[in-house]
Amino acid sequence: MSLVNDALKRAKQAQQENPPPNPELAFRPVEPLNEGQPGSPLLFFGAFVGLVLVIAAAGFLIWAVTNKRGPDLHVEARPGAEPVPAVVAPQPIVTPPVVTNVQPEIVEPPKPELKLQGIFFSPTRPSAVVNDRTVYVGDRVSGLHVRAITPQAVVLTSATETNVLSLSH
Q: What pTM did the predictor assign?
């Protein structure tokens, strides 16, 4: 241990006899910033990224609003319709008379009027306007199921029939 202490004493004594030179620190005045020089590239990059994010958010919002599908409401005013009474009196139950040996008459429901007004074809999500209503594949219009939409036609099906609507030229 005495060897270590002796070495430390000698180092301290040598340091006191020959102190290390103190270099003069050279201070220079601050150079004024030229106004013609561009700002930090990081600042411009941050502004660019912020602008891109704002544009992307606005695009997503517009896309979300235009692709929102809700039920189409059809409201029709009938002139001369009687107002609905506030309280409806109970009606007596009338039992129809029993008729035997009568053949039931088969009545076909009237076929709905279908009018194709436009096709907006997109490979990912095509749509069409049928009877003033925008429809997509899988939707129902006038009791028929929309099976396919091509650039030229719309295929509608029911349990018994298939209708192909095409745009007239």
A: 0.36
